[in-house]
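User: Predict structure, ligand ribulose-5-phosphate.
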Amino acid sequence: MKSENGRDDAKRRAGESAAELIEDGMVIGLGTGSTAAHAIQAIGRAVSEGMDVYGIPTSFQSRALAREVGIPLVTLDDALPDIAIDGADQVADGALVKGGGGAHAREKVVDAHAARFICVVDETKLADVLNHPIPLEVLPSAVSAVEDSLRERGGEPTLRAAERKDGPVITDNGNPVLDCDFGTIEDPDVLAASLSVIPGIVEHGIFAAMADEIHAGFSDRVDIRSV
Ligand code: 5RP
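Assistant: Predicted complex:
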């Protein structure tokens, strides 16, 4: 098992590798999570050295970090991203599971509208086939009904509980999150399509055929793969 420090180094390598793609004048989708945070910090350093870029945050967390490191912010109303840099909970054959931070609804909007989407992960996220539970942001009034629909599709949903207080995790959009275990996901496109039609699901965490490049950090290198 890798140490947490070693794993964070691999995340930093991946995040900084993606940040090297940033050029003057770009609008950048700023992902959520600890790996994307390394990219945001690297972009902040570039801004402090005079680079002229703008960020579109995907969460309260990435907005706060971007402000802290001095990245000027805009919204999707102002411009679409030239590039988005975002993490993932699992990657297999170019398909991603996202939403470990419950930010996947906004992440999907920003990442999907970027001209280029770079996914940054450490090596522990790489898999041969997706089998990570799928995060689902759900309207509060629809939780039970959505749970039934997920079970009909062979899933085992669990309401994500808040760590530091009683009750569920609530997203930036004010909704709870279900994590649904589907076991091995042979065809992410098919599962994504079947989740997209369940009323009450605001967004699911399958990002199939969205990433353009995967930057995977290891202890001694970054592997960059086009997908
Ligand atoms: C948040 C996400 C994150 O990108 C994902 O959970 C990975 O996080 P980390 O880089 O901290 O492992 O999808 O909704």
